[in-house]
Amino acid sequence: MHVHQSAETKVEKDMKKLVLVGNPNVGKSIFFNYLTGLYVEVSNYPGTTVEILKGRYKNFVVYDTPGIYGLSSFNDEERIAKNIIMDADVILNVVDAVNLERDLFLTLQLIDSGKPVVVALNMMDEAEQKKIKINVEKLSNLLGVTVIPTVAVKQIGFKEVLNAIEKATAGNRDKKLAEKISLISRKYGISDIESLLIIEGDSETIDKFKSKFDGEIYAWNEREKIYIERRNRANQIVSEVVTINTAGGKVSGLIGRIAIHPFFGLIFIGVVLYLAYLVVGKLIAQDLVEFTEDKLGKQIYEYNVRKFVANYFPVEVNVNVLNEDDEIVDSRSFIFEHGFRNSPDVLRKMQSFVQGKRVEYEFNFKNPVLVIFFGEFGVLTMTVRYLLFLLLPLVVGFYLMLAILEDSGYLPRLATFVDRLMSYIGLNGKAVIPLILGFGCVTMATITTRILSTKREKRIITAILQITIPCSAQLAVITTLLMRAGFQATLIYIFTMFSVFVMIGIILNRILPGGATPLLIDLPPMRIPRIDNLVRKTWMRTFFFLKEAGMWFFIGAFIVGVMQVTGLLDKWIQTLSPLTVGWLQLPSEASRAFIMGIVRRDFGAAGFYALDLTPMQTVAGLVTITLFVPCIASLMVMLKERGLFEGLLIWISSWVIAFTIGGIVSQILI
Ligand SMILES: Nc1nc2c(ncn2[C@@H]2O[C@H](COP(=O)(O)OP(=O)(O)OP(=O)(O)O)[C@@H](O)[C@H]2O)c(=O)[nH]1
Ligand SMILES: [Mg+2]
To answer: Where does this protein have coiled-coil stretches (predicted)?
Structure first.
């Protein structure tokens, strides 16, 4: 998802177009990464790639496409993929050897289009494990194109694929169909693939040429007949080239079946959640973060940065003496009119005061610019601490866990398992995939809503995602704060968030016309995730997180800093105080968290980190900030995906819902 399509350059216009085409989840993106040296995401669920991605290989422009089952315009992925396939000079059709019968339909259709095709018969390792034998030579003869057995994850067969691409040829087309195609192509001067699509009744292509051909164009539609014949031919070919000695794939098969079993499936979810809690909630959020945030971030990083600045500039230092339980038992302040360097007397006094005591320093700089950069909320102090020492370890933990889920093949099974439940909120099980991805990054998940087939489903899930699902960075802070607030607080928080989630779903399901669509999803085999892919994916996502979040954090902190030194912050805090103090019953400083939260919710949640809240205040505050506006990046993506009106409507709803629900929770609890 991190390579984006850009406008075609002049040079590229003259280059040949190599398009990767195949059913979902067959390994196309691995081929793309290998050919172009770029990185696009690879996961074990159908619908990982949702847009066209572009790169280069030798004298080819290479395109990765979303997985499709056929060339038509039934849904977004197909429309997107079809448009680029129309322009292809060479097609590299990636086929799953284990599901040859399913995948050959598309292969035959591509061959019928008359384009040069190379077939990569991928997943040969799994076919072998399942004792599936394929006569590759015979398959190649029947199709009339080069077929190369490959194992993409091990780059087996890739050299041969590269060679074949250079020499790709058109294959054996269905004779009768080819005649009709050439008739239409010649008569109207359109391409073979356009003629094919017209004959197959593709609505988009028909709309495009309708005015030119009058009503005649509809008479050509033979979709049903062609599809049936092609299906039969695929089956015929498979019966000739494939022999199976059944059995095999025992353990992964068993786990796969447990995951969708009505009873054991539930236990399975429980186990997955508990493991996730142990790793992220306990190990990382409590133990690791305590060390990185407090020790590395506060005591080492921030202290040294401020001390360095204090060498040269006027500063007042408050020294708090702490007892074993970190409570303040004594405190004294030292004023350095000209910085540490030029006030050796005061420095000596301070040093002798702290001797042998457990202490904590507060630096109050006089210069407003220094306050903005090195003060309590400083751009170079607090922001860096939150980003690197609080969020980074947590985010890496979440991303890694998510990557394991994605690559194991569990997500499509979870989709099957929750299908019935999801229908109550007007969705089918597939919607669980963007939802789970939302716990990583709501922005990314909003793009993934494209794997849902109807606009209605996309609307519902986008609203739920943007309003109720906390992203990894935010979840990170929430987990840490809830661990502090205790078990009861955690339960109340989860219950409240879940209720809002269900309520939004039920309401939207009621008011939007239409209903849930049936679940159509292929269950890929369960696989042990590959370490190299896990590391690569986590690293790429972390890198983009730091880049994205970093920028907004610095901007946010700068704005808050300026507001602070100009006195605007205090005014704002006062103005908001009926809302925060009266209605939400939080300390007035909580307003600052909301201001930071407009920029990024996780930043806002982190703002609570510094406040001294009771467990129930924590719940009320966290509920409010979770439901509060999504981060600016995800707002942008939502506006792009859902349009200005719908996007803004969701955004504004999140304000209203956040303060209403947060207030209700607070009135009940506190
Ligand atoms: N065992 C095995 N796994 C493979 C092979 N090729 C791909 N995979 C796995 O198949 C899954 C799908 O790979 P992707 O490259 O994301 O597939 P894709 O065709 O781009 O999928 P979509 O973008 O969803 O259409 C990943 O979990 C890969 O690790 C192979 O040859 N052998
Ligand atoms: Mg892909």
So the answer is: none
Per-residue confidence band for 7, with pLDDT thresholds at 50, 70 and 90: low
Q: Give the domain-ending residue among 183, 212, 240.
A: 240
Task: Judge if 591 and 513 occupy the same domain.
Answer: yes
Residue 338 to residue 359: CA distance in whole angstroms: 23
- How far is the centre of ligand 2, averaged over its atoms, from the C-alpha of 177 (Å)? 31
In a domain, 397, yes or no: yes
Q: What is the Cα–Cα distance from 94 to 316, expressed in whole angstroms?
A: 67
Say what the ipTM of the complex is. 0.98
Question: Tokens 């008011």 label which residue?
Answer: 511
C-alpha–C-alpha distance, residues 107 and 195, integer Å: 18
C-alpha triplet 47, 53, 58: angle, nearest 5°: 130
Residues contacting 251, CB < 8 A, separation 6+: none
Alpha helices for 375-530 (secondary structure H): 382-384, 392-408, 410-422, 432-438, 442-448, 455-468, 472-485, 487-511
- Say if residues 385 and 302 touch (Cβ distance below 8 Å): yes
The string of pLDDT tens digits covering residues 272-296 is: 888 888 887 778 877 888 889 888 9
- pLDDT at residue 250 greater than cutoff 70: no
Quickly state the pLDDT bin for 9 (edges 50, 70, 90).
low
Say if 284 falls within a structural domain. Answer: no
In this structure, the residue with its CA closest to atom 15 of ligand 1 is: 27
Helix (H, G, I), strand (E, B) or coil at 282: helix
For ligand 1, which residues put their CB under 6 angstroms from it? 22, 24-30, 42-44, 46-49, 66-67, 122-123, 125-126, 151-153, 407, 530, 533
- Total structural domains within the chain: 3
Instruction: Give domain status of residue 149, yes or no.
Output: yes
- pLDDT tens digits along 189-248: 899 999 999 999 898 888 888 887 777 777 788 888 999 899 899 989 999 999 876 554
Residue nearest atom 32 in ligand 1 by C-alpha distance: 123
| 498 and 645 co-located in one domain | yes
Atom of ligand 1 nearest to the CA of 26: 19
Q: 525's torsion region: left (phi>0), alpha (psi -120 to 50) or beta?
A: beta
Nearest-angstrom CA–CA distance, 565 and 365: 11
Looking at ligand 1, which atom is closest to the CA of residue 124?
Answer: 31
pTM score: 0.79
Mark whether 517 and 646 lie in a shared domain.
Answer: yes
Q: Is residue 228 domain-shared with residue 347, that is, in the same domain?
A: no
Q: Are residues 484 and 574 in the same domain?
A: yes
300: in domain:
no
Q: Are residues 637 and 565 located together in one domain of the fold?
A: yes
